[in-house]
Amino acid sequence: METQTLDGWLDSLNRLFRIPPEFRDETVEWNRARDLLGGGDSLLQTLVDHGLPYSDSSGQIRFDRYDLLNLSLYSGSGTSGPELAMKYALRWMHDAPETLYTPRTWNFSIEVSCPHPEGCGDGERSWDIARPEPDLYGGRTETLSVTKDGAAVEAVLVSNGAQRSLRSPRLREIVQEYSEGHRWIRIPEQLQWQSELLLPHGFAPCIPASLDLAEKCRAAGFEARTRRGWILGMLDIAHSWLEVIDEDGEVKTVDPAFLLLARDHAEKPHPGFREACLGSLLNRLMPTGHEADDPVLQHECRHGWSIPDGKTAIRLNRAA
Question: What rounded mean pLDDT belongs to the chain?
Answer without folding.
Answer: 95
